[in-house]
Amino acid sequence: MNELETIALLDANVIYAAPLRDFLLRLARTNLYEPKWTDKILNEWIKSLLRKRVDLAATNLNRTRMLMNEAFKNAKVIDYEKFIDSISLPDKNDRHVVAAAIKSKATFIITNNLKDFPKYKLNEHNVEAISPDEFVRLLIETDKQSVLEALEKHVESLKNPPQTREQLLNTLENCGLKKAVLLLR
């Protein structure tokens, strides 16, 4: 993996948890990879989060979506729908994710639902589904210093409430980054 040669489509389930989403986007800001998503993926994330967290306001989540799109002007994938019908997956509702990965020439689909994206189905499209933990581990292998700098910037940005480096690592570990956090410690 080389800087910005890696394109990664973020599935809704990795955008769902704010600490994981924020860390993945901080890593993208270091030019370790180029993030991609679609309006459909963002809608899915917001809808799912609002269903589980009635204490959250849709306006705040839509603001987060707007800020993501502003920060990563080339992240939004469009005109991917033409690929959907040619894709076969265990869950038909996930075909749009693979279609967007194809359109954006993504190397990876970052997802927590690996079973929904079987390797043998993705091989023909030259894309691989991997967990966020495995993806961050690969980024650490590629450029540990940049990942550590992103982590420190993330810690510095946390104001409400502030967190120590160890607290953030614990949070990321709870978000599923078990192997990556072990390497970062």
Question: What's the topology here?
Answer:
Blueprint: E1 7-10, H1 12-15, H2 18-29, E2 34-36, H3 39-52, H4 58-71, H5 95-104, E3 108-110, H6 119-122, E4 128-130, H7 132-157, H8 165-174, H9 178-184
Parallel strand pairs: 1-2, 1-3, 3-4
Helix pairs in contact: 2-7, 7-9, 8-9
A few lines on this structure:
This protein has a domain at 7-131: Rossmann fold.
How many H/I helical runs? 9
Question: How would the global form be characterised?
Answer: globular
Counting DSSP E segments of at least 2 residues, the number of strands comes to 4
Just name the CATH architecture of the domain at 7-131. 3-Layer(aba) Sandwich
Helix residue percentage: 40-55%
Q: Kindly report the average pLDDT value.
A: 93
Low-confidence stretches: none
Largest sheet: 4 strands, parallel
* CA-atom Rg in angstroms: 16 Å
Query: What spatial order of strands do you see in the largest sheet?
Result: 2-1-3-4
- In the CATH scheme, what's the topology name of the domain at 7-131? Rossmann fold
What characteristics describe this protein?
185 residues; alpha/beta; Rossmann fold
Describe it for me?
The chain has about 180 residues and is an alpha/beta fold. The protein has a domain at about 5-130: 3-Layer(aba) Sandwich (Rossmann fold). The protein has nine helices and four strands; from the N terminus they run βααβαααβαβααα. It has helices at about 10-15, 20-30, 40-50, 60-70, 95-105, 120, 130-155, 165-175, 180-185, and strands at about 5-10, 35, 110, 130. The chain has a four-stranded parallel sheet with strand order 2-1-3-4. Strand 3 (about 110), helix 6 (about 120) and strand 4 (about 130) form a beta-alpha-beta unit. The longest helix is centred in the C-terminal third of the chain and has 26 residues, at about 130-155. It is globular and about 45 Å long. The two termini are about 20 Å apart. About 30% of the residues are buried. The mean pLDDT is about 95.
